[in-house]
Sequence to fold (338 residues):
Amino acid sequence: MKHIICLSIFLSAIACTKKQSDSEAKKVEAGTAEQKVWTSNSALEELGYHLYFEKRLSGDNSISCNTCHDITAGNAGVDGLPTSVGINGQKGERNSPTVFNAKFLSVQFWDGRAKDLAEQAKGPITNPIEMGMESHDLAIDKIKDVKGYQELFAKAFPDQENPINIDNLATAIAAFEETLTTLDSPYDKFKEGDLEALSELQKKGYEAFQSVGCVSCHSGPHFAGPSLPIGTGFFMKFPTFPDADYENKYHFSEDLGRYNVTKNETDKNMWRVPTLRNVARTAPYFHNGKVESLDEAVKVMAKMQLNKDIAEDEAKAIVAFLESLNGNIPLINEPKAL
Fold:
């Protein structure tokens, strides 16, 4: 898999903050005027919706996709933990990326090991720490006799005699996840010509975001780098400029990132550049979830990726701009069990 290396701001748009006292910045309140209610537009999306919440795909019927990527009640597609908790209370080693706007990324997972959403959907099911099924066949066996799934798979794949299989399951989950986008943020409105959509502080932050160098990697409409073919990852080394104080505090370099997939020396501490959409809602930050606040994450990135010490007012402005990337998260309720 081809990948491209660059220097950048590396803010994880992955897990929703545990500090809910500032709830308006962390989640969309259900029932607000602008909040949309999610509805399916096809049998495939409807099937994927049910499978996304299906705990029977885990070894002990306790874990679903939504467990680690919570999209209910206005949550931003994350679980708010440094690293997620899987089957039997086991803790993973990495922070859960948000599922919102994941369709715009050219590879999935922090290390880019899955080329697309369908491939990504298969991974956690048989991961012994996450959903803990011994095989995909056993997972399929648990749902193929459920009448509701027999009907949904038949509608989603009408031309297939035996549609209940792992490939179709993953395709359906991916189809559902592709509906999870938030392209109506204040920033989007600003770019469409509404000059009042951003506050003066956010406009100042946008200028700083560019001048400081954040945009060198967090470019493009989704602030995740250039648009690339699916399967071609946009990666960066983190940290690029090691700082002893931050490293001792947050231990960023302990996880070797993409190297664990490729065993290529040049891939040590290489990571897929994440989207910054909804980043203000997805604390804690970075691949290990060690940094709790966005303000601190901005300072870490300036120092360890761009070798710059930024002033408090500059960091505050950049954070304000990043908050303008919050889109309207749809209201999604957990379906009734089939």
The CA atoms of residues 92 and 175 lie 26 Å apart. Residues 1-33 have pLDDT under 50 and may be disordered. The chain has 13 helices and three strands. The chain has two domains: 3-19+182-323, 22-177.
